[in-house]
Design brief:
Helix content: 40-55%
Keywords: Signal, Transport
Protein name: Extracellular solute-binding protein
Strand content: 5-15%
Family: Belongs to the bacterial solute-binding protein 1 family.
Organism: Paenibacillus faecis
Subcellular location: Cell envelope
Number of strands: 19
Distance between the termini: 37 Å
Mean pLDDT: 89
Number of helices: 17
Length: 456
């Protein structure tokens, strides 16, 4: 599909300079809604074609995402590519992206008010050079119910809190009462299990159970034991919202909102993204007898070994120009526009696509400052965005079964964390090795069949 922004009568000069641009994106209609329509109004002489990356999956499961993506780009030859940090880093270091620094200098394009940590991260992944820009990002923060902290005389949270500090605060709140009336020190709007809490802690500290490159399972380490022990202590103390029925099971909108414990003022601390602010705004108008509370926000959670950064900052739409693009001028105009001030002014009115990288326009939402989301630097590892295509999908279900069994024994005090992690690591490795072997055999069989058909 092609969108042509027509010229007004008498705009002969624009008609003479009609330009083409091919953009790689995951959904055509969403692209125009989010970026294309606004760009076309500013640049009516640019004809935009969207090449949909969903075609990568048209043949079924993708075994190697990075290879499939590179093959897609080589075939479609888009001028503008949309990448995650992993593919951005790979393409930049393989010389497949156009350097933007010279274009920025040439046009005196203002990057000073773009989230500095984003520029720093993108340059780091480009070996000191800038090959792309991201108009939006998402980040987590720590939200707290200031009224509960005041009521129970607990010192409120501070910026740069670790998970240990968060859960220590959570345990200072009372645990008496039934599930329908009591409060909780920590929780999300949904049930938080022992395993889920441990994974949240591990993620903040950069721990990975499975190395997608070596295909080795590594769980029986001091760092993992500490993460699971921290989670177990909080769960065992009754400080974490973890209902036996798993939380909301369906019902009316009012029943849904009533099941959201932080929104209902029954959780002292939670972690989440900016959409929490939107939910708090919506619930006020959705429920007649809703009782609002004073909301507080601080930065975190952070890794205690690197407290200035966060692994809960995400960039999923980094736009760059494919090296060798014949339409680099139009592509650069597009990237400048969606990362520019005019675009930020319009998009600052909503939070539908996350936080704006161009700072100074989206300063607050519903009376709450958004500064907290810009305080930490992103600590973005490749594993955060790795699609782990080498790991067969069939493995994960079996892995989860092993995890549930062993962690259940830990929660019921029938096995130590160390013994459980040792068993999980051993059994998961055997399961992963078999799944990989079966996958390779399947691919070999399919390749042989394809070769046989070609010979016929």
């Amino acid at each position: 599909m092609v969108l042509i922004a027509g010229c007004n009568p008498g705009q002969g000069k624009q008609a003479e300079t009609q330009r083409m641009m091919k953009v790689m994106f995951f959904d055509e209609s969403y692209f125009f809604q989010q970026y294309g329509d606004m760009f076309a109004m500013q640049y009516p002489n640019v004809e935009i074609e969207v090449v949909n990356t969903q075609s990568i999956y048209s043949g079924g499961q993708v075994e190697d995402y990075n290879k499939a993506m590179m093959d897609f780009i080589d075939k479609e030859q888009p001028d503008v590519v949309m990448l995650n940090p992993e593919t951005y880093s790979k393409m930049a270091n393989d010389g497949k992206l156009m350097e933007l620094d010279t274009l920025i200098d040439r046009d005196k394009y203002n990057t000073e008010t773009i989230y500095p940590a984003l520029i720093e991260m993108l340059k780091q992944k480009g070996n000191g050079k800038l090959y792309g820009l991201s108009p939006t990002f998402n980040a987590n923060a720590i939200f707290y119910n200031a009224d509960l902290f005041n009521k129970y005389g607990v010192e409120p949270p501070h910026d740069g809190m670790t998970w240990q500090e968060i859960l220590d605060l959570a345990r200072r709140f009372p645990t008496e009462g039934d599930e329908k009336s009591r409060i909780y020190g920590y929780g999300t709007n949904y049930s938080t299990t022992f395993s889920q809490l441990a994974q949240q802690i591990a993620s903040a500290e950069g721990l990975n159970a499975i190395n997608p490159d070596t295909l080795k399972v590594t769980l029986n380490t001091d760092s993992w034991k500490k993460a699971y022990q921290m989670a177990l202590d909080a769960i065992s103390a009754g400080a974490v919202y973890n209902p036996k029925d798993g939380g909301f099971q369906g019902g009316s909108m009012e029943e849904y909102y009533k099941s959201q414990m932080f929104l209902m003022g029954r959780i002292a601390l939670t972690t989440g993204d900016p959409y929490m602010l939107q939910s708090l705004k919506e619930v006020r108008s959705a429920m007649k007898d809703y009782k609002p509370f004073e909301l507080g926000m601080v930065s975190g959670p952070v890794d205690p070994t690197n407290p200035e950064t966060s692994r809960n900052i995400y960039f999923s739409e980094i736009f760059g120009i494919r090296a060798g693009s014949p339409n680099a001028d139009a592509a650069w105009d597009f990237i400048k526009f969606i990362n520019g001030e005019d675009y930020a002014k319009v998009k600052s009115r909503s939070m539908n696509n996350g936080l704006l990288s161009r700072m100074g326009y989206s300063k607050e939402y519903d009376g709450h400052s958004l500064d907290v989301f810009y305080k930490l630097k992103p600590n973005v590892s490749e594993d955060q965005y790795s699609s782990s295509d080498k790991i067969p999908m069939e493995f994960y279900q079996q892995y989860q079964t092993i995890m549930d069994r062993e962690l259940g024994l830990v929660e019921n005090k029938k096995k130590s964390i160390e013994d459980a992690l040792k068993v999980i690591e051993q059994e998961a490795q055997v399961t992963l090795d078999k799944a990989v072997k079966d996958q390779e055999a399947k691919k070999a069989k399919e390749g042989s069949a394809a070769g046989s058909d070609a010979a016929k």
